[in-house]
Write a structure and sequence with these properties.
2 copies of one chain form a homodimer. Chain A is mostly helical. Helix content of chain A is about 55%, strand content about 5%. In chain A, helix 1 packs across helix 3, helix 1 packs antiparallel against helix 4 and helix 5 packs antiparallel against helix 6. Chains A and B meet through helix 1, helix 6 and helix 7 of A and helix 1, helix 6 and helix 7 of B. Chain A binds a DNA duplex through helix 3.
DNA sequence: TTATACTCTACTGAGTCGATAGGAATGGAG
DNA sequence: CTCCATTCCTATCGACTCAGTAGAGTATAA
């Protein structure tokens, strides 16, 4: 699995929107400015996220973008898949499972890749935008405790 | 992290050499044939592996390739890094650690990526070619037990 | 000396990636 | 109704990577 600049920009933009979730619409220009993302490039990324129903938009003078669901319900794994494809290091989970069965001499190799993709999925599919925002704060505030908070609905510190 | 066809071919060729480890030299032609890899393409891959000191070669009539170290001492993680670069989903471990510290608004995001790369490394750096050969056999022979056998050098569980 | 095998360099055609340009559609403000 | 800020769409660009090929060069055993 590889995360491109596009994918990184998308995540940064979504984190921005997550932080502004209760504040209504946010304009592309503002996101691009504060996150140092080329504005025209971000345009295309947001359209992709809109088609994937992650964000919604309104046009015209008072337009802008907002998250379509609360930040606790948008998983990093989904975003990565939309922008950069499957989490697996080679092909996708279905193809890997297939090759485990059909390539007699190398079943174990693809099975190993499947383990890697499952390990990545275990992390990214259990981390929501809200979790990342929380983690940003934690890292910023000294980050002594190498705590692993899990779950889309995580709330409590400690 | 992304494993290219090149990386996959390399691993298949190395597994081939691991199985023939006690049998002396193996010719490119033979590997290419039995593993269905374009011969000229495999040529270049093996030179890369030779420069990385994973395999050694001898020229001339009775030439060929062999592993430079026993299959228990060659880790899949090393091979992937040689052919396809760092295991991290973005940049490498050093860059990620640096950005955790220097991007105040998104430290948590890069910290998350670091978790993913560590999860991948925990698997691939504890699996040797010998482990993969063993796993191939296991998968081939029914593969009921979803056992995780670890490498001769393995130390910590994930 | 010759056949066989590895070595090296260069190249190609297709595709991806980050980024930009220019305009069309939309909707609020005056 | 007209302006204008904003999202939306398409097209293009240059640089780069990737899978694969071509061909000449070098070492070695028989």
């Amino acid at each position: 699995m590889k995360v491109s600049h596009r994918g990184l920009y998308a995540l940064k933009a979504l984190i921005h929107l997550a932080e502004a979730y209760d504040g209504g619409l946010v304009k592309i220009h503002q996101i691009a400015d504060e996150e140092s993302i080329p504005e025209k490039f971000l345009e295309g990324i947001l359209v992709t996220l809109k088609n994937a129903r992650i964000v919604s938009s309104e046009r015209g003078r008072e337009g802008g973008y907002r998250l379509r669901r609360p930040p606790t319900e948008i998983l990093v794994g989904d975003v990565v898949r939309i922008l950069d494809g499957p989490l697996a290091p080679f092909g996708d989970a279905v193809e890997l499972a297939h090759r485990v069965r059909t390539e007699p001499r190398h079943g174990g190799l693809f099975d190993l890749f499947l383990d890697v993709r499952n390990a990545a999925a275990a992390i990214l599919d259990h981390t929501s935008l809200a979790d990342v925002v929380e983690r940003n704060r934690r890292v910023l505030a000294g980050r002594r405790g190498k705590n692993r908070r899990r779950g889309a609905t995580s709330r409590t510190p400690a």
